[in-house]
Amino acid sequence: MEQLLTTQQAAAMLRLHVKSVQSLARRGKIPGVRVGRKWLFPRAALLSRLGGTSGVAATRLTDLSGRNQLPGQVAAISLSGVMGEGIAVLAVVLLIACVGLMPARASGPRELHVAAASDLRFALEEIARLFEGQQGVPVRLTFGSSGQLAAQIEQGAPFDVFFAANEGFVHALAGKGRVDRKSVQLYAIGRIVLWVRNDSPLDVSKGLSVLRDERIRFVSIANPQHAPYGQAAVQALQTSGLLIQVQPRLVLGENVSQALQYVQTGNAEIGIAALSLAVAPTIRSQGRYQIVPAYLHRPIRQAVGVTTSAAWPDLARRFVRAVNGPAGRAVMRAYGFTLPGEGL
Fold it and tell me: Residue 35's pLDDT is what?
């Protein structure tokens, strides 16, 4: 049966505001059906319109919002609120029949869609290149905070596999039926570091006590509301007795990668970031870091799971095995992760 998405779910998948999705549907730029005051959107048709690739949504949506309809476009069907329920259902069925003629991700495993915590940016890019060479299948990586990615998956975002920086997000999705419970496994334990630019006068070798330096105006961390590395940063500050003193100077990045960028661009004098980012060649050459002692915060246990809506579940499982296999573990280890079975 064709899966229909609510406006909110479609907005999360397309990465647009709800009002933008409704506007595109009213103008016939994306396939949708209006039942009373609500819109419903066929998931497969939206995937087809995006070429099955969430990572290029913004590019494709430039075409969708243009003046001319795309080839093969299915116009939105608008139903008056006074129409009977039976007619509304019939219209939905007709819409599904139309979009069923459009090519979707069913002609073969052309690409794998991976949602991953931003601390994995460099490590997973390397592993993905190895996997693509072995399997001949493109891997599309989308990075963000674990909490935000989990929310998108819960709302129906088209990811095949989810690498979170906190195992709690994956287990929660499994409990809601969005992730295959049997596929959930630990893949790494992360570490946090203090990071400054090379031209900074701050001595990060002092550890967290350097944050008492009066020259520091801003300290960047990932938003602890939805970013596990931000949560670990707050825990470390609290354990060290520095949170009250530092809190007024905290600036929050949407994820740990953005928190690091604030320091790179000079918008913060120092930041608490992921070790996996600090040791990346392009980052390492720009600054200095000091690892925050692990006892100051709860372990950053990172888990992965295959989504129950995965278009290619077998391919997704192979990718997970590649990450936890010998070659993948070597890459993860090189980026500072502690691996399952190696302890912390």
Answer: 61
